[in-house]
Amino acid sequence: MSIREPGDVLIVGGGIAGVTTATSLREGGFHGGITLVEATPACTDHPPLSKRALVEGATRGELDLLTKERAAALNVEVVVGVEVVSVDASAHTVLLADGRVMTAEAIVVAVGAEPKHPVGYGDHPRVMTLRGYDDAMAIRAVAGAHSTVVVGGGGFIGAEAAASLRESGSRVVLVDPHEVPGSHVLGDTLARWLHAMHSEQGVEVRHTRIDAVVSDAHDDNAPMQVALGDGSTVAADLVVVGVGVTPRVMPGAERLVAPFGISIEASDHWDAARLDGMDAAALLLGTTPALRGTPWFWTDRYGHHIEVVGDLANAGLTGAAIDIIRAGTAVFRVDGDLLLGAASIDDPMTVRAARRIIDRGVRVDRDVLADPSVSLRRMLRG
Ligand SMILES: Cc1cc2nc3c(=O)[nH]c(=O)nc-3n(C[C@H](O)[C@H](O)[C@H](O)COP(=O)(O)OP(=O)(O)OC[C@H]3O[C@@H](n4cnc5c(N)ncnc54)[C@H](O)[C@@H]3O)c2cc1C
């Protein structure tokens, strides 16, 4: 069953999931009204925020996922700068923070996640998280050649922020208690390669945790004292916290039931969120969702582009998975002759071929995987 034409769809949240829902509805031939409500001043793409936006200061417009022109061409009404407070699934309404009530036949909630901010990190204005455009610009305003930045957390956001802030000339101290941050997602081999880049690029890496951030109550501009678990203290101009995210909760959204409403779960990676948006549109239209390939994502740091597909961290079906290394540019996780996951540094074609190999269950030859002179496409042809 699909929504009745010409019903209206209201989408809450203008991240990649919400915007893709809107564009996919139109591409799927939906002629009803589409309204998208976004809390911030624009539908901002997030991945560039820890990369070129921090280093080069991109404008909000450059990162806009749904410009006025594109929205007009798609006939999507975009309402920005106002939060949706709650959803009433049975009445098909949403309540906005400015008191307006909007009605739609179907409601899609795609509000993503927000960064965690542990208590010990304090609430000083220069203790910041990085999620939206304003966060990136606030960090950029303090960072620079004469500043010391403590980055708490060496996961994706922390690691990318550390790399960008280093590139901007800041002294960067990266604090994470794990010897190899990210190994639970990236596997030990790749996570080690990536983590080693920090020290090679002049970031001071401390394997401990932040115990407390102490600031001068009388002087907002004075450096903060960041007390670390190893007993040392770092005087910092800025603390960037990257210790994970929590899905945002929209009151009432849990009662949305397709095809009259969908609550899209927050995804850790951009491509998964985009596919979730496509699935939501298909569900509303009553069409078959597109087949998903093996999960894929990327991360950029210190001028390197890293792509990852599949599972690099688990032990495989037989519990005997091993890593095969291709001369420092790629790593493959195999179980027997089955490819479980792959990652590359500055070699996206290898990961794309690996994705097709995993999708099709093509058997792999370990010698070919290890040999950088042989293209992976040979296995696909075989
Ligand atoms: C700095 C940064 C760098 C990243 N880099 C990468 C990367 O390199 N590779 C990768 O694969 N992934 C990356 N990601 C992750 C990726 O961006 C997310 O997985 C993706 O943005 C999730 O999309 P989403 O639409 O589900 O949620 P979000 O992008 O979080 O979008 C949700 C939107 O809803 C809005 N909203 C929230 N509450 C309300 C409300 N009450 N009313 C109205 N609107 C509301 C928010 O303002 C936001 O615009 C990065 C994320 C960040 C923050």
TrEMBL record:
Keyword set, alphabetical order: FAD, Flavoprotein, Oxidoreductase, Pyruvate
First and last residue of the signal peptide: none
Cofactor(s) required, per the database record: FAD
UniProt keyword Transport present: no
MF annotations from Gene Ontology: oxidoreductase activity, acting on NAD(P)H
Residues covered by the Reductase C-terminal domain: 296-380
Domain of life: Bacteria
UniProt keyword Flavoprotein, yes or no: yes
FAD/NAD(P)-binding domain segment(s): 8-248
Any one Pfam family match given in the protein's UniProt record, by short name: Reductase_C
Gene3D superfamilies found in the cross-reference section: 3.30.390.30, FAD/NAD(P)-binding domain
GO CC annotations on file: cytoplasm
Protein name (record): Pyruvate/2-oxoglutarate dehydrogenase complex dihydrolipoamide dehydrogenase (E3) component
